[in-house]
Amino acid sequence: MKKRINDLDLSKWKKYEDLWTDSLWMIDARDRSGAHTNTYHGNFVPQIPHQLMRRFTKRGDVVLDGFLGSGTTLIEAKRLGRCGIGVELLPQVANRAKKNVQAQEGAGKSEIVVADSTTKKAHAGVATALKSMRKKSAQLLLLHPPYHDIIKFSSKRGDLSNATTVEEFTRRFGDVVANLCPFLAKGGHVAVVIGDKYSNSEWVPLGFYLLQETLKRDPSLRLKSVIIKNMAGNRAKQNQGRLWRYRALKGGYYIFKHEYVLLFKKS
User: Residue 151's pLDDT is what?
Assistant: First the structure.
């Protein structure tokens, strides 16, 4: 019998109308229920981990986040009864995430590792967290890195937003994949959430670069879906719609309105 990867009862598949199965995700507003907040610039909407966890994990499974930020993934994991492990580079951000997760009700266990996700320290921290949860592996790995240098999160060398070139950014992201994918169970999934950027009058396809880098760093991964998600309520463009429209008309380009959720499965 094929091992189940989620808690869905497909004999009652029609009742899951809240689960998305199309590759275009239109999200009007972020979920602000529970402990979810929007105070951390650069965090992703809770609906993304919510959808992925329900499709690709069961209660009690492990979700690993390599770029924890304010704790969105661990909050959602706790709500859904999953075990969450998050790796965060910045201690002050990790402390904020810890408070956010503690404020959320739920049965899921949570562990936060303060480390650079490319390092042996991060690898050892995740291994220790799994052991404390009495788990051997993760079923879902979520990676939502900085979109290169669009937002500077810190001055730390290990911060991917400080990569001096797109090539360095891509390579260092690949180092994260190589460091954390070994914790993924066979049949588990990786989701990379990434947007592109515009620099020196040129569109820089970060999503395509990271897609290729992910497959290169772990040959056991297979690309399952490329999901396009709309970008709504972008802080950098808030209340400046007309200005950006003028700039686009003058500069001969199109305004960013989407980002990617790249889904891979470990064979």
Answer: 83
